[in-house]
Structures are given as C-alpha cells and as structure tokens.
Specification:
The chain is an alpha/beta fold and 308 residues long. It has 2 domains: 3-88 and 276-294, Rossmann fold, CATH 3.40.50.720; 91-268, NAD(P)-binding Rossmann-like Domain (Rossmann fold), CATH 3.40.50. 29% of the residues lie in helices and 17% in strands. The chain is built from 9 helices and 12 strands. The chain has helices at 14-23, 70-73, 89-107, 110-118, 142-153, 180-185, 206-209, 229-237, 278-294; strands spanning 3-7, 28-31, 42-45, 61-64, 83-84, 134-138, 157-162, 171-175, 189-192, 216-220, 241-246, 266-268. A 7-stranded parallel beta sheet has the order 8-7-6-9-10-11-12. A 5-stranded parallel beta sheet has the order 2-1-3-4-5, covered by helices on one side. β9, α7 (206-209) and β10 form a beta-alpha-beta unit. 39% of the residues are buried. The mean pLDDT is 98. The chain binds NADPH dihydro-nicotinamide-adenine-dinucleotide phosphate and oxalic acid. NADPH dihydro-nicotinamide-adenine-dinucleotide phosphate binds next to α5 and β7.
Amino acid sequence: MITVALLSRPGLMDPMQALLARELPGVTVASWPESAARDAELAVCWKPEPGALATMPKLKLIHSIAAGVDNILSDPTVPDVPLCRIVDPDISAAMTEFVLWGTLYFHRDFDRVVSNGRNGVWRRYEQRAAKDRRVGILGLGELGSAAAIRLVELGFAVSAWSRSPKALAGVRTYSGADALDDFLGETEILVSLLPLTASTVGLLNAGRLGRLPKGAALILCSRGEHLATEDLVALLRSGHLRGAVLDVFEHEPLPADHALWREPGVLVTPHMAAIASWQVIAQQVAENARRLLRGETLLNVVDRARGY
Ligand code: NDP
Ligand code: OXD
C-alpha cells in the first residue's frame, strides 16, 4: 500500500489521519517531519515548508487540500510530479453564496446602513434594479463561473475576465491583458476569483483599481497578494472607491492590530468564503491515490506551466 505524508502547520490536518485510513485501507499516514513521511509516494499539502517536498525521493503525486495551489508552487524546489487540487460542487456553492452576499451588501446599501445604524442615523438610499448593477468577475473558472451563473439568474449585469476566451450565457466576457481596462471600466462591483500566479500577483493596484468607475466596490476572494492594500486604502480615502470586502490576506490570520480591521469602508472576513470539508478532501485525495496505484488518469491536475 501507499504512504501519505501530510505537510502543513502542526495540527491543521489531524482530521485527515482517520479519514484517509478509512478511505484507503492499509495506508500509512505520517505528518511531516516524521521520518515515515520522507518515504511517502503521496504528499497532501497546505503551505508546505519550502524545500520539504524536494527531500522525498519516492514522491509520485502532490495533492493540495485547497482549490488554490500557489502555496505549493511558490517553492521553486517542488519536484516535477503531478499536482492535483480540490474541485467540488459544495465549494463552488459556498463561494457563490459569499459572492452573492458581498454583491447584495453593496448593491442594497447594507455597508452604508450598518455604518449609519451605529450612529443612530435613519437614512434610505435610492434603490437600483439588479439589471442596472454591473458586477464584474476576475476569473471565470470553477468558482467564477458558478458565481456568474447565479448572479445572472438574479438579474445582475454580469461580465467576466479570463486568460483565454470564454462564453457563458448572459455574461459579457473579456479575455487577455489587453481587455482588462475595458472590463474594469464597466464594473461597479468587482469580484476577484483569480488564481495567484506570476501573471496575477499585484494585479489590483492603483492603476487597475483606478479604472473602476467612481463609487465601485471590491470583493476579494482570491489571494491577498493580488491586492496592493495601500493603493486600495488610498482609493477608499479619496472617495474613488466605496468599499471592500476582503476575505484573503498576504499574511493570515490578519493580526488583531492590523489597520485594515478599522479602515472605514473595509469589511474583513477570515478566509471563509469557501472552505472544503475534510471528508471531501480525503475522498478526492483517496480517489487520486487509487488512480495513481492503478496507473489511471488523475483528477483535477494543475497545469504547472500556467501555475493553476
Ligand atoms: P480555476 O483554475 O478553475 O479558474 C481560474 C480562472 O482564472 C480561469 O478562468 C482562468 O482563465 C483565470 N485566469 C488565470 N490566470 C489569468 C490571467 N493571467 N488573466 C486572466 N484570467 C486568468 O480556479 P478556481 O475558480 O477553482 O479558483 C480560483 C481561486 O479562488 C483559487 O486559486 C484560490 O486562490 C481562490 N479560492 C479562495 C477561497 C476562499 O475561501 N477565499 C476558496 C477557494 C478558492 P482561463 O479560464 O482562461 O484558464
Ligand atoms: C482555496 C482556499 O484555495 O481555501 O481552496 O483559499
């Protein structure tokens, strides 16, 4: 049977021990840096220590416990074996819920009335129909397309931007770097669902966010490294941007004394937009382990050259 190594901060993957043992009878599960982990054929990872995967001579497959794999590929020494990620309808549904909530938060002025309510201010705002609200999604993959479909169903004017050309009913699509400014120019609520790669790091900077129309808002669900935080804060303070829901940060957890917690217009959420269940993760890892042993095609393989 196979040996599986768990690589993460201590304790994070404890639930995986029993779940993998149930899914893969006879499996040996070892947590890095136990010596048995070094003999593993399969590594299951969240932010593995840089260099750790390179010390595993029998490694045949690396599995992310998340949809994103930036925390693995950021290590230049990661061995050149297949890398798989988690793709699951429940994650897409959870992300869709979060995006819908964030969209309605701005669209229905909850950001303003919650703030007003703290000061006892009774104020109503002019309502706009969903069809007149332009929501733009960066990234039209598993999560972006699921959210886009539901936003279209609710009647929003939805556009999306991807690397390659895409077609999705009811969605105005843009692709490639040259189309980004046009896409941003027509977006009032910007949702980021991009993977973190060399092409997308720092994408949301003053130049790009400044292309959004005055009064636009940001919902950042992708990675903290996509955002130039100081540029966002400057645009909020100047009044160009209205607000931001930030779910992801370069350093997590966001420290309690971080200024973003208290920045007017910013709502911080604790990387909770879509959290995969340990059961689903174990099932998908086990399915790929069985496929590996049988020499079959693996599921949800990441394109290492693209970085996602
Ligand atoms: P996918 O790989 O399915 O989709 C990625 C999309 O981004 C694709 O449409 C792709 O374009 C597009 N894209 C990638 N690079 C570029 C680029 N340079 N320019 C334009 N478009 C680009 O990813 P998922 O939808 O599964 O996940 C997206 C991200 O969401 C994850 O990587 C992770 O960072 C984040 N995430 C956050 C969670 C949270 O709780 N906050 C939970 C889960 C994920 P194309 O279609 O042409 O390939
Ligand atoms: C993910 C995440 O990538 O939780 O799945 O951010």
